[in-house]
């Protein structure tokens, strides 16, 4: 069990230094987050992008580029292809989006011949450190899959469980989130999907995991809520992973924890042969740094 991001950092340091390939690296926010990770001895990086623009960023922020390997490419698609190639060839462990567009970046990841896709679906994993919970919370999917069907939810769950395994969890407790804890297939189809996936775990179709659902968020994260409702659950009140039914639920979950709940957060894209760091400009520097740390820790 990881109680907080400090535990995650300790785990990463015990694994040794790894390398990140950054596509269109001439992004000041990305460089600053990378520099923090590099200075902590956590990673080396290959910066693929405009050497001229990288030098300007380094000058503006009083950084030395001598600590980085630089591949001078100006074209956006070529930058993405080179970053993906480096990771695919085992020369780096994580691929990170810099200044390139999300569409071009993901297209390079998903390229059938030269990309990194390895699972049934790409999915976003958010990792929260909340002052109101006793350990890290993993949540999926708030950013990639808009309205996942049952098969999509199975893939999203498998991706999240695999990431938890990589972080040392033997059997992560996983809550399939809905609005209620009872199955109501006609009025609320997500409850039926949750029950099916929970039964699949019982029958070892999804391995090395404890899954229960449907569970409302209070059931998943509050022991008191389960006592009041008389709900007996192997996951309730102690969930490691919450799988949400759609992107709206995930988005609200994410923003409530960070905006009103004062949670620190990291985000990683799963389902590729290597973890993918895809942050937005709205993310804090701390969030970008923690996303790098989390991706490095999940990587093989």
Explain what this protein looks like in three dimensions:
The protein is α/β, with parallel strands linked by helices and 300 residues long. It folds into 2 domains: 113 residues, 3-Layer(aba) Sandwich (Isopropylmalate Dehydrogenase), CATH 3.40.718; 142 residues, Isopropylmalate Dehydrogenase, CATH 3.40.718. It has a 6-stranded mixed sheet, sandwiched between helices. It has a 5-stranded parallel sheet with strand order 3-2-1-4-11, sandwiched between helices. Helix 3 links the parallel strand 2 and strand 3. The protein is elongated and about 65 Å long. The protein starts with a helix and ends with a helix. The mean pLDDT is 94.
Task: Give a summary of the structure in a few sentences.
The chain contains 11 helices and 11 strands. The chain is of the alpha/beta class and 300 residues long. 50% of the residues are buried.
């Amino acid at each position: 069990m990881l109680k907080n991001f400090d535990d995650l950092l300790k785990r990463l340091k015990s694994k040794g230094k790894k390398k990140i390939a950054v596509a269109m690296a001439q992004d000041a926010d990305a460089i600053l987050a990378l520099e923090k990770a590099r200075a902590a001895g956590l990673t080396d990086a290959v910066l693929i992008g405009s050497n001229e623009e990288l030098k300007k960023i380094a000058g503006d922020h009083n950084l030395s580029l001598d600590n980085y390997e630089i591949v001078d490419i100006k074209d956006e698609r070529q930058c993405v292809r080179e970053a993906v190639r480096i990771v695919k060839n085992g020369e780096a462990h994580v691929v990170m989006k810099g200044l390139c567009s999300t569409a071009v970046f993901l297209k390079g990841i998903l390229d059938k011949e030269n990309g990194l896709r390895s699972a049934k679906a790409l999915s976003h994993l958010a990792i929260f450190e909340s002052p109101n919970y006793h350990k890290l919370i993993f949540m999926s999917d708030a950013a990639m899959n808009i309205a996942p069907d049952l098969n999509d939810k199975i893939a999203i769950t498998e991706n999240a469980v695999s990431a938890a395994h990589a972080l040392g969890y033997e059997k992560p407790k996983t809550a399939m989130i809905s609005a209620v804890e009872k199955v109501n297939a006609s009025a609320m189809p997500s409850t039926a999907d949750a029950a099916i996936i929970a039964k699949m775990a019982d029958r070892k179709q999804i391995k090395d995991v404890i899954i229960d659902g449907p569970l409302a968020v209070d059931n998943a994260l509050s022991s008191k809520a389960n006592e009041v409702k008389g709900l007996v659950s192997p996951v309730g009140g102690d969930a490691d992973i919450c799988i949400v039914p759609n992107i709206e639920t995930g988005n609200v979950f994410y923003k409530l924890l960070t905006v009103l709940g004062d949670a620190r957060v990291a985000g990683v894209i799963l389902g590729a042969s290597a973890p993918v760091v895809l942050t937005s400009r709205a993310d804090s520097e701390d969030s970008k740094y923690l996303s790098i740390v989390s991706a490095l820790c999940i990587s093989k």
